[in-house]
């Protein structure tokens, strides 16, 4: 079983998911005519999980009901050794018994997933702290306990560092030891702009009319089902990725950004609104360079656009001019472009090691991340490890996106990427034909980018960045005007503005500590030195911390050590050591005792 916590930069992400309603300012368009069936109205239940799940949330109706309907192996009781998924809400969390907290801690420890319905980020932070307390009471391997303490404690750190995000309510937040999955409040909104463009095939002249208005996104049962599909698919697979194992473990964040548009608003077709699931995954590393006193934030982003949901228009190249009623048809929708860019919030950073850097015209490209600093601190480093050494991140991803032209901009410190259709389909007058767009414009595609921001931080600073995302889909309709053939392009562009990603500060200081046992028994000293060598008995050891005065890391380390002691009472008794023992903790710069650990072993 994999047990590696990848902790760096957990982000509380606030993003828009639906379309906003505002006043229409519409120029007259050619008479639109109906074609094709409407969008499904029922939940298709396209993804199901057979993992053992236990439901503690109210799932009598709404979105939580749709999530639970996808689990086919619902358990009658919560068993931390058997249960893989747990669905909770705030009401159920408030009524948990001590025994249930223990079982939840086991679920988390055993690679399980906790799906929290409609929490605020503060709710999730409070929940994580209580799971942490429950883990401390269990007799797990101490090295693993250290990792989980860091993991769960970090949610509280994010909430404290980003108070504006703490009260934001999410539709779903799901966690396991590696990943955080976020789905924003489904009542949030985004913007949409529609464009009508006509191209004269004889003269090549283009006439564009922009429609700057939005439509209210009706969250139908079908579209809610798509979101539930993505969540359950993530829960089933979030531990199956082969993550890079090195001294600097990343944190993975998964975000749903569905693209919803209504063909009737910009073509007049009587089709219902369409939703294309889109998933953005961030993998982030963070470290502080002790030589230059600079923060390094390394970010890899993968966009997965499920274009197969665009298959809702006539695709035949012939006889598409009219439907059975003799009225004109539309060809589409198909993907027109995807754009994404990110802005650092804080001091102006340097943009380094970003890629891909070149425009792409081939069918595939490889994004190679190779980054290191000579001396650095990693957030997840155990005390005394990797201090004064190098921090290295290596990763490689190959992306295939045929017939999508990629353009890259580097505006000082803002990496911007645009993937745009290479060749638009054209209607042909003779024979009533039209071009067929490349298959991937109506199929699922994936694309990746990476970059590094380097910034000289101020004291105790916490930073974040905003990500703007937009995607547009397009329809084609032909008309004849006298002797000229005109292709009319109808485009819907959906904007998700200002998604905020919080970057809690990496450790920027090294603390030196000493721990020793008050005893003159040389046999006991030899035993402790060997059995607890990882805890740096009776010699200096180093702890990375946010500042020289930040005692959070050493507090976690002490709790980890005390958990180990509580697990080892039988070992002490077998070696003949019984009675009361006292361990002293203090900084190397003072003789003042910071903490005393009292330990008792019965005969």
Describe the model:
The strands form 6 sheets. Strands 1, 2, 3, 4, 5, 8, 11, 12, 14, 16 and 22 form an 11-stranded mixed β-sheet that branches. Strands 7-6-24-23-13-19-18 form a 7-stranded antiparallel β-sheet. With 603 residues, it is α+β, with helices and mostly antiparallel strands. Helix 3 (98-109) packs across helix 4 and helix 4 (121-136) packs antiparallel against helix 5 (142-161). The chain is built from 11 helices and 28 strands. Residues 1-37, 241-249, 360-369, 373-393 and 397-401 have low confidence and may be disordered. The radius of gyration is 28 Å and the shape is elongated.
Biggest β-sheet strands, sense, barrel: 11 strands, mixed
Give the uncertain stretches in residue-range form. Answer: 1-37, 241-249, 360-369, 373-393, 397-401
Strand content: 35-45%
The geometry reads as elongated
In DSSP terms, counting alpha (H) and pi (I) runs of 4 or more, how many helices? 11
Helical fraction equals: 10-25%
What Rg do the Cα atoms give?
Answer: 28 Å
Number of separate strands: 28
Mean pLDDT over all positions: 77
Helix/strand-derived category reads alpha+beta
From the N-terminal CA to the C-terminal CA, the straight-line distance is: 36 Å
What's the structural blueprint in terms of helices and strands?
Layout: E1 53-55, H1 62-68, E2 85-89, H2 90-94, H3 98-109, E3 113-117, H4 121-136, H5 142-161, H6 163-166, E4 170-175, E5 179-184, E6 191-200, E7 206-211, H7 221-237, E8 251-256, E9 259-261, H8 263-266, E10 274-276, E11 278-289, E12 294-306, E13 331-345, E14 350-355, E15 364-373, E16 376-378, E17 391-400, E18 404-411, E19 414-421, E20 427-428, E21 433-434, E22 444-455, E23 463-481, E24 484-503, E25 509-517, H9 522-531, E26 541-545, H10 552-567, H11 569-574, E27 579-587, E28 595-601
Parallel strand pairs: 1-2, 2-3, 5-8
Antiparallel strand pairs: 3-4, 4-5, 6-7, 6-24, 8-11, 9-10, 11-12, 11-16, 12-22, 13-19, 13-23, 14-22, 15-17, 18-19, 20-21, 23-24, 25-26, 25-27, 27-28
């Amino acid at each position: 079983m994999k047990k590696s916590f990848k902790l760096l930069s957990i982000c509380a992400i606030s993003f828009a998911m639906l379309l906003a309603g505002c006043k229409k300012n519409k120029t007259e368009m050619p008479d639109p005519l109906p074609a094709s069936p409407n969008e499904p109205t029922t939940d298709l239940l396209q993804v199901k999980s057979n993992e053992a799940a236990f439901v503690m949330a109210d799932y009598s109706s709404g979105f939580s009901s749709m999530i639970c309907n996808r689990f086919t192996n619902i358990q009658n009781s919560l068993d931390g050794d058997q249960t893989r998924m747990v669905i909770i809400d705030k009401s159920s969390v408030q009524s948990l018994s001590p025994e249930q907290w223990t079982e939840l801690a086991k679920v988390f420890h055993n690679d399980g997933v906790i799906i929290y319905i409609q929490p605020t980020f503060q709710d999730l932070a409070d929940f994580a702290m209580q799971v942490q307390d429950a883990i401390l009471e269990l007799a797990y391997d101490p090295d693993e306990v250290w990792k989980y303490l860091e993991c769960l404690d970090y949610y509280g750190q994010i909430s404290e560092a980003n108070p504006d995000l703490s009260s934001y309510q999410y539709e779903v937040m799901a966690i396991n030891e590696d990943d955080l999955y976020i789905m924003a409040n489904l009542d949030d909104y985004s913007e949409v702009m529609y464009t009508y463009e006509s191209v004269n095939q004889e003269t090549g002249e283009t006439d564009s009319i922009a429609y700057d208005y939005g439509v209210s996104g009706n969250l139908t049962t079908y579209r809610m089902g798509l979101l539930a599909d993505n969540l359950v698919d993530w829960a089933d697979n979030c531990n199956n990725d082969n993550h890079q194992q090195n001294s600097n473990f990343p944190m993975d964040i998964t975000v749903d950004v569905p693209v919803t548009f209504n063909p009737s608003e910009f073509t007049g077709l009587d089709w219902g609104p369409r939703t294309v699931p889109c998933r953005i995954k961030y993998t982030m590393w963070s470290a502080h360079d002790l030589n230059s006193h600079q923060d390094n934030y390394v970010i890899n982003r993968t966009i997965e656009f499920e274009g197969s949901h665009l298959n809702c228009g006539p695709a035949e190249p012939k006889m598409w001019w009219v439907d059975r009623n003799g009225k004109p048809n539309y060809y589409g929708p198909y993907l027109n472009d995807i754009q994404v860019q990110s802005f650092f919030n804080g001091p102006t950073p340097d943009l380094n090691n970003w890629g891909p850097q070149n425009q792409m015209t081939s069918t595939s490209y490889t994004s190679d991340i190779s980054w290191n600093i000579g001396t650095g601190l990693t957030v997840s480093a155990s005390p005394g490890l990797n201090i004064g050494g190098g921090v290295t991140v290596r990763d490689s991803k190959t992306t295939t996106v045929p017939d999508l032209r990629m353009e890259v901009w580097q505006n000082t410190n803002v990496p911007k990427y645009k993937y745009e259709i290479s060749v638009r389909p054209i209607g042909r007058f003779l024979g009533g034909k039209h071009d067929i767009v490349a298959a991937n414009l109506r199929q699922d595609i994936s694309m990746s980018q990476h970059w590094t921001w380097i910034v000289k931080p101020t004291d105790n600073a916490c930073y974040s960045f905003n990500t703007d995302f937009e995607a547009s889909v397009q329809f084609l309709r032909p008309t004849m005007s006298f002797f000229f053939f005109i292709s009319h392009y109808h485009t819907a562009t959906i904007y998700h503005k200002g998604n905020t990603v919080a970057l809690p500060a990496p450790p920027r200081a090294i603390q030196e500590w000493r721990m020793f046992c008050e005893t003159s028994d040389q046999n006991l000293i030899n035993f402790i030195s060997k059995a607890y060598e990882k805890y740096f008995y009776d010699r200096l050891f180093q702890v990375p911390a946010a500042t020289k005065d930040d005692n959070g890391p050493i507090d976690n380390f002490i709790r980890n050590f005390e958990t180990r002691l509580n697990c080892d009472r039988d070992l002490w008794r077998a070696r003949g050591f019984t009675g009361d023992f006292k361990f002293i903790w203090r900084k190397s710069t003072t003789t003042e005792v910071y903490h005393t650990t009292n330990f008792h072993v019965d005969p």
